[in-house]
């Protein structure tokens, strides 16, 4: 999969039977258990290594943990016999261990995400498996392998069998002979909907690339007043999906909190409290609606920008730092800038376009006509209230966001 030049991901909704739902839950619980066991053994090993006195019992335990961590799949399964159940996917175990190692690699590489933490038991369920191909198969594709398409509506998955799905793009069905499946993730969200995510790869591009690029270049300025303003003056309004649902969601969450309090007073487990679970589902559906609306808006806008321009330049945003401003934190979270920039990045590769980000320093304060910077030569810097201004040097009147988009494009062209 890694050697193939083109990659693509797709998430499909599936409709499992009652027995298949039970198997998904068992595999999800086993995957979480293995991850937590790996984390527990590593933490215990770290604590034992802090003991300076060479106690024989401690040294023996250290050697035991080291042996188990060398071959965790065998070590954990031998210690916990229920993991050898035939209903559990063996590749699920391998992926759980792999995910734990990847968490450590991410910590050493980024050193911001924190050391791997224990996975709590949640309403959501998820586990990963993989598609294996027989050595005799010369050209692996989506129609053969342990995970394969049976027809346009059904997919075969190890241990689960035949599953009905919907949402596979027509272009993938047409090219199923040259596309192969890699990692497969099965999940259930808080609303009880089941999904399968497929990692796909191919030697051919998933989108037909044009022979010649005749499209233009564009710079975009992201802001809270409007979602974005581009260098041609077009403005995309900010839909504010969360704000439109805020009051309704808050009312439902207050009701959920009251039901949780009542269940605890009556010494009932929340997981088995029917009234609490019914209200939790209402809250989860409202949150999913907001997330789906935002996701659909960002997908459509990012695809339009990438398909219609050879070069897209955006400002490099650090959402983590911006969220420290409590007055704007909710609006920044609602707008989804970080997700939007991520979509532009991977779609640029998909459509053979170019997307770059530039340092936003002084893009708002600089005149795009004469390059005069506000705040110099005795002038005052522009504030958030200043939505339009006139350059004191060349007397050019600017609309704040449009001017910033022009400066962002100019920086991108200079760096390109």
Automatic annotation (TrEMBL):
- One Pfam match, given by its short name, reads OrfB_IS605
**Ranges for domain Transposase putative helix-turn-helix:** 9-47
Residues covered by the Cas12f1-like TNB domain:
337-408
> What are the record keywords, sorted?
DNA recombination, DNA-binding, Metal-binding, Transposition, Zinc
**Which InterPro entries does UniProt cross-reference here?**
Cas12f1-like_TNB, RNA-guided_DNA_endo/Transpos, Transposase, Transposase_put_HTH
Residue ranges of every copy of the Probable transposase IS891/IS1136/IS1341 domain listed in the record: 217-325
GO molecular function terms listed in the Swiss-Prot or TrEMBL record = DNA binding; metal ion binding
> Which GO terms of type biological process are on file?
DNA recombination; transposition
Q: Which domain of life is it from?
A: Bacteria
- Return the similarity comment: In the N-terminal section; belongs to the transposase 2 family.
Query: What is this protein called in UniProt?
Result: Transposase
């Amino acid at each position: 999969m890694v050697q193939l030049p083109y990659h693509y991901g797709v998430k499909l909704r599936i409709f499992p039977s009652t027995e298949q739902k039970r198997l998904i839950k068992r595999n999800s619980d086993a995957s979480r258990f293995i991850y937590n066991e790996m984390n527990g053994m590593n933490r215990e090993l770290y604590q034992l290594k802090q003991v300076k006195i060479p106690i024989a019992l401690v040294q023996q335990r250290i050697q035991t943990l080291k042996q188990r961590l060398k071959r965790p799949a065998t070590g954990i399964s031998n210690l916990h016999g229920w993991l050898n159940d035939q209903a559990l996917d063996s590749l699920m175990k391998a992926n759980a261990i792999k995910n734990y190692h990847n968490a450590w690699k991410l910590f050493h590489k980024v050193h911001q995400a924190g050391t791997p933490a224990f996975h709590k038991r949640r309403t959501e369920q998820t586990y990963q498996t993989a598609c294996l191909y027989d050595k005799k198969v010369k050209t692996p594709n989506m129609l053969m392998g342990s995970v394969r398409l049976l027809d346009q509506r059904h997919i075969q998955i190890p241990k689960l069998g035949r599953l009905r799905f919907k949402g596979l793009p027509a272009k993938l069905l047409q090219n199923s002979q040259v596309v192969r499946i890699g990692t497969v993730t099965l999940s259930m969200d808080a609303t009880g909907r089941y999904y399968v995510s497929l990692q796909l790869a191919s030697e051919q591009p998933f989108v037909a690339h044009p022979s010649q690029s005749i499209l233009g270049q564009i710079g975009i300025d992201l802001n809270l007043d409007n979602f974005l303003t581009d260098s041609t003056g077009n403005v995309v309004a900010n839909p504010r999906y969360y704000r439109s649902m805020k009051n309704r969601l808050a009312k439902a969450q207050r009701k959920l909190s009251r039901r949780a309090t009542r269940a605890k007073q009556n010494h009932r487990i929340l997981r088995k409290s029917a009234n609490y679970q019914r209200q939790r589902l209402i809250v989860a559906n409202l949150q999913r609606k907001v997330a789906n609306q935002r996701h659909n808006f960002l997908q459509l806008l990012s695809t339009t920008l990438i398909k219609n321009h050879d070069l897209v330049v955006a400002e490099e945003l650090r959402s983590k730092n911006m969220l420290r401003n409590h007055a704007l934190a909710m609006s920044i979270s609602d707008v989804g800038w970080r997700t939007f920039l991520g979509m532009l990045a991977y779609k640029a590769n998909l459509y053979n376009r170019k997307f770059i980000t530039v340092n936003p320093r002084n893009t708002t304060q600089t005149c795009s006509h004469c390059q005069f910077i506000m705040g110099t030569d005795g002038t005052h810097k522009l504030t958030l209230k200043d939505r339009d201004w006139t350059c004191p040097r060349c007397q050019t009147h600017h609309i704040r966001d449009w001017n910033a988009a022009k400066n962002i494009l100019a920086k991108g062209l200079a760096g390109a």
